[in-house]
Structures are given as structure tokens and as C-alpha cells.
Design goal:
The chain has seven helices and five strands; from the N terminus they run βαββββαααααα. By secondary structure, the chain is an alpha+beta fold. The chain has a five-stranded mixed beta sheet with strand order 3-2-1-4-5, covered by helices on one side. The longest helix is centred in the middle third of the chain and has 25 residues.
């Protein structure tokens, strides 16, 4: 498997999943503006969407979209426990969180990264993110991770979004459960390895 990533982008989520899974991996950095890879290849030939992550499987199949990729990775290493077995209610809860992080948080940050987003719209975006972070904070009460005591691929994805909050100076210090979660995930060796691989450690 080969993961195409951009440092600190949402591709950090499958990068974390790969390190947590213990699977062998290759990775290559992508310049998203130029649409080229570190080796000089045309990234659009890998993923015509022009976005990371992209995971190229050993048979040449290309998977895109983070929530699909992290579940594929988890299913290749079931003993790692980073996702429950398919068909179980526990797996559906992980999928529920993957969808929430993707649609309610990830997409909420998108306009903040765009230079052409009107300044008078940004406070609305931030307010919406604050509301959703407060919801996650409540859900984390009494839990180490989103679905309980075990780290899953959904936790890795949320951690990436929380790193973006730092960059956007969105303060979560008042959300004690979420802040503790972030520190807990940050301390994981697999997460540290992924951050180091992307030059972010």
C-alpha cells in the first residue's frame, strides 16, 4: 500500500491509522497546489479529484476519501482493534463518528482555509464549529475515546481536526473532555510516528 499525503491535511488521519495498524506502508508527499508528488509525478494521474488522501493498493486499485480509507486499513489489520468487526453495532458507531467528523467538522473548516471566504462570514463558521466541539465534549464525558475505552480510526480523524483548530486559533481549553482527549491521542506512539513522518513532530 502507498499513501499519498499532504502534511497536516486530512490525509494525516489514514497516516495515523496505518501506523496504529502496524501494517507495512509506503507514503509520498503531494504538493496540492502544483498537483505533483515528491517524486515529480502528476498526482492527478493517481487521483483525478486532486485531493489527498489517496491510497494505492498492491493491485493498483486506488481508494480515496478518508473515512473509506481508514476502514479499509483497519480491516487489513483486525487484531490492531482500530475498528470493530464489520456488521457489529460497535462498527456502526465508529462509522457514525466518522460521518460526523467528516460532515459537521471537517467541512466546517473548509471555508476557513480559503482566502476568498468573506471576513464577515468567518465568525459564523467559528460559531458553528464551537457548537459542534461542545457536542463532542459532552459525548466524551466518562470516555477515553469517542466510542469508549478503545482508540479507533474515528479518534484519529477527530485529532486531525483538533490540530486544525490550533492553527485557526479556535480555543478548546474550556472543553475539558475534548482537551484531555486531544492530549491522550497525541501521546499515542502511532500518532507520534505519523506526525514525525509528515514532519509535524
Amino acid at each position: 500500500m502507498k499513501l499519498y499525503f499532504a502534511p497536516g491535511a486530512c490525509s494525516l488521519s489514514p497516516h495515523i491509522a496505518l501506523h496504529e495498524s502496524g501494517l507495512a506502508l509506503q507514503s509520498e508527499k503531494v504538493d496540492l497546489r502544483a498537483k505533483t508528488t515528491a517524486s515529480g509525478a502528476n498526482f492527478l494521474a493517481v487521483n483525478p479529484k486532486g485531493q489527498v488522501p489517496a491510497l494505492v493498493l498492491d493491485d493498483g486499485t486506488v481508494l480515496t476519501e478518508g473515512p473509506a480509507i481508514v476502514q479499509y486499513i483497519a480491516d487489513q489489520a483486525p487484531k490492531s482493534g482500530i475498528a470493530p468487526a464489520n456488521g457489529t453495532i460497535e462498527r456502526y458507531k465508529v462509522q457514525e463518528w466518522l460521518n460526523y467528523v467528516s460532515t459537521e467538522l471537517h467541512k466546517g473548516f473548509g471555508p476557513l482555509f480559503k482566502p476568498n471566504t468573506p471576513d464577515n462570514y468567518k465568525p459564523i463558521l467559528r460559531e458553528n464549529i464551537d457548537i459542534r466541539f461542545a457536542h463532542v465534549d459532552k459525548e466524551l464525558a466518562g470516555r477515553d475515546y469517542l466510542t469508549g475505552s478503545k482508540f479507533t480510526v474515528a479518534d484519529g480523524y477527530l485529532f486531525v481536526i483538533l490540530r486544525w483548530a490550533d492553527g485557526m486559533k479556535i480555543d478548546i481549553a474550556g472543553l475539558k473532555n475534548l482537551s484531555a482527549f486531544k492530549a491522550r491521542v497525541f501521546a499515542r506512539p502511532g500518532v507520534q510516528a505519523a506526525l514525525k513522518a509528515e514532519g509535524l513532530a
